[in-house]
Amino acid sequence: MAIRTNVSRYFSLRRILIQIHMDLFKVERRIRYDRWPEPLSDFEILVLILEDRRFFKHYGIDVKSLIREIVRALTLHRFGGASTIDMQFVRTATNYRQHTLRRKLYEMLLAWIIQYRYNKFEILRSYLACAFYGSHLIGIDTAAEEVFGVSQYELSFDQSAELAEMLVYPRPLEPTAQWRANVSRRADYAKRL
Description:
Number of helices: 10
CATH topology of the largest domain: Penicillin binding protein transpeptidase fold
Strand order of the largest sheet: 1-2
CATH class of the largest domain: Mainly Alpha
Structural class: mainly alpha
Shape: globular
Number of domains: 2
Largest sheet: 2 strands, antiparallel
Order of helices and strands: HHHHHHHEEHHH
Helix content: 55-70%
């Protein structure tokens, strides 16, 4: 009987469902509804090139990337998190930052669930509106205004490439030459594709 009590204390289906429900409310608060999706801007296209090329082809989890990263981890190579934009949006909206397998699996579950509630344009634009671009730069509107002094709709192609890169290399309080070189190199890569 004691074992059963201990197991139920740690694993409760009711508690898990309540947690999922609460986290979906957090995601809902960040969603920007897009009734008639406009064509993708240069900035959005560059983000997709750099972050998640198969964004419109998967349901929140990019199985190819996931398998690639598992193989890299098993062969002791440097590996990443295989995060999709959907997963990054969930992580940003729920503010879960632990680097654990449990958190990653939970993030995948929520990313898969939101596919049935929101369209891909809403997920992408909601993520970009709350993403971290650097110190005091949360969301594309703030980042475009602070870095270039223009709205996100007035960004040039080069400015779009630099801001898209800042999702990978967020801008520090005081940008260094090394940071600028990293951003330029990766932004040039995105512009070539």
